[in-house]
Structures are given as structure tokens and as C-alpha cells.
Amino acid sequence: MRDCRGASATEYGIILAMIAMAMVAAANRFTNASGAMYRYAGNNMDIAK
């Protein structure tokens, strides 16, 4: 019989890595979007002065 315990651990590691990459990508998009929002608000406040 073959020991398959290591294969499932590897699969869980790959799934965890994919989830981590998705979280980093989502955080990056959120950071870019919120930065653009604050720049837009700051520029419009300068115009209103």
C-alpha cells in the first residue's frame, strides 16, 4: 500500500496559497481605489478654496 498523507497536505498548501494570492490582489485593488478616491476629494477641495 502507498502512503497518500503527503498528497493531501500538498493540496491544502496549494489551496491556501491561492487564497492568499487572491487576498493580496483584492487588497491591492482596494488600496488603489481608495487612494484614487482621496486624491479626487483632495483635488476638489483645493478647487473649492
Describe this structure in words.
The protein is mainly α and 49 residues long. The chain contains one helix and no strands. Helix content is 90%, strand content 0%. The protein starts with a helix and ends with a helix. It has one helix at 5-48. It has a domain at 23-48. The chain crosses the membrane at residues 12-30. This is Flp family type IVb pilin. It comes from Sphingomonas adhaesiva. Keywords: Membrane, Transmembrane, Transmembrane helix.
Task: Describe the structure concisely for a colleague.
By secondary structure, the protein is an all-alpha fold. It is 90% helix and 0% strand. It has one helix and no strands.
Residue share in helix:
over 70%
Q: How would you spell out the order of helices and strands?
A: H
Low-confidence stretches: none
State the total count of DSSP E strands: 0
Radius of gyration: 22 Å
Counting copies of identical and different chains, the oligomeric state is single chain
Distance between the first and last residues' Cα: 78 Å
Describe the secondary-structure layout.
Elements: H1 5-48
Features:
49 residues, mainly alpha, 1 helix, 90% helix, Flp family type IVb pilin, membrane, transmembrane, transmembrane helix
